[in-house]
Amino acid sequence: MAEEVLGREAASGLVKQLRETFGSGKSRSLEWRESQLKSLLKFVTDCEQDIIDALLSDLSKPPFESVVHEDINATTVRFKRCPTLTIKERALIAMLKNSCKLALKELKRWMAPEKAKTSITTFPSSAEIVSEPFGVVLIISAWNYPFLLSLDPVVGAIAAGNAVVLKPSEVSPASSSLLAKLLTEYLDTSCVRVVEGAVAETTALLQQKWDKICYTGNGRVGRIVMEAAAKHLTPVLLELGGKSPVVVDSGINLQVATRRIIAGKWGCNNGQACISPDYIITTKDFAPKLVDSLKEELEKFYGKNPLESKDLSRIVNSNHFARLTKLLDDEKVSGKIIHGGEKNQADLKFAPTILLDVPRDSLIMSEEIFGPLLPIITVDKVEESFDIINSGTKPLAAYLFTSNEKLKKQFVLTVSAGGVVVNDTSIHLAVETLPFGGVGESGMGAYHGKFSFDAFSHKKAVFYRSFVGDAAIRYPPYTKGKLRLLKALIGGSIWGIIRALFGRS
Ligand code: NAD
Known about the structure:
It is a single chain. The chain has 505 residues and is of the alpha/beta class. The chain has helices at residues 8-23, 30-46, 48-59, 63-69, 87-90, 95-111, 148-159, 173-186, 199-206, 219-231, 254-265, 287-302, 318-329, 363-366, 384-390, 405-414, 450-455, 480-491, 494-501, and strands spanning 114-116, 125-133, 136-140, 163-167, 192-194, 212-216, 236-239, 245-248, 279-283, 337-339, 343-344, 349-350, 353-356, 373-379, 397-401, 419-422, 443-444, 457-465. The protein folds into 2 domains: 8-61 and 95-117 and 131-240 and 450-458, Aldehyde Dehydrogenase, Chain A, domain 1; 245-437, Aldehyde Dehydrogenase, Chain A, domain 2, CATH 3.40.309.10. Helices cover 41% and strands 16% of the residues. Helix 18 (480-491) runs antiparallel to helix 19. The radius of gyration is 26 Å and the shape is globular. The structure holds nicotinamide-adenine-dinucleotide. The active site is at residues 239, 274.
């Protein structure tokens, strides 16, 4: 069911409706959660071609990337734009479907109360941690992976038993309208709704009281979301971005490293991805070898004229195209482009572009690039990169290519980032046993796999007592002896307890 433009009153009515359904307990049952997850899986399977077409329309996204990142069923999709797709590539991780399948497989276990230890102080007793749904949650998603970023949190919210409002990004209009039109045909609209819209609609939604808000996007709007949430003391999951660095040491398998950097940068939406490598730091000595390798592999992947490559996404819209152009027009980086730079405004195509030795106070180094430009900073010693990274805001991801074990340890210990990957880029996103989220300016909270279930659950502490073992020492009149025994019990030392019982301090 496609929703019409939403004002404050309509938003309030929508939340009221969902709150009533949530209050009825409908979304809490295992059966309801399972049926919704199965329907979500069915939606992705049934509508794969529609999804592919929407992504092509919004982002000119190569179908191969859609299959891998947005989890479309590769076998039935028309790969008319990717004739070279291999069977092996088709078998690559399909993240969204995997999230649904994992949740369906593990749901009973995730929902089961978790036993907790109790102490002698409260003997006899038992305790458990009960995961309870927050209630009615709002999910606001971003344009760059419009299906994955919308539906992956929805999987977590449903698995945890919440009622959900999803607000996809207006910047990917075809994907947003497909979600509004088709998703709600598959899901129970008394508990799950899709609201389309831009700033006005999102503002109307943010004026309501939610039990949790999950927002994916930039930090400026992240602050708006958090401010709105603070009014109701609503907890937030903020999935933001940042400048994710790649440190490249010498003595590595350069070709593999280069290919993995390219895959993470240009192979993910042409750099329009939150964990895309934002800039490289390498040594002055190693930079020429790295640059040669990048140029060589880029040509192998995207040909001599990358603007014509079918394997590169376009820039999402003319605003972002102008923003990226401005980064290159900054006079501080004039003469620094050593590869690429070609662009075509008419079809929003931007070639992979490498800049060498950019000054750290240039525009390109002061904001998240979120596009196909890759600046390289050079240092005398690779260890200097740690201070450079830590002097900026905390990134969503930090990457290191090295064969040096000591450097790996140092990097993991010293560099603060949402996630760290050694000898690859971006791939941690697909590891469902790892939490995915930022730290500091790159966000707060995390999801994926079981972490998604936890992100949308309150961990309720539950403690059970019977009527036996009622100890008089808790109650007045308070005496020194009771105090001694109580202290010993809290201290947990058996000898202390025995001494207290025999009146010894
Ligand atoms: P966007 O423009 O799609 O905006 C995100 C959402 O915010 C949209 O739903 C939009 O309607 C809403 N919005 C925009 N302005 C608003 C306002 N004034 N008030 C209320 N809501 C508003 O996406 P974007 O921000 O351009 O996304 C790119 C950023 O998101 C980058 O910084 C990127 O790193 C980050 N990102 C992070 C992740 C992650 O998982 N951590 C994933 C993708 C993108």
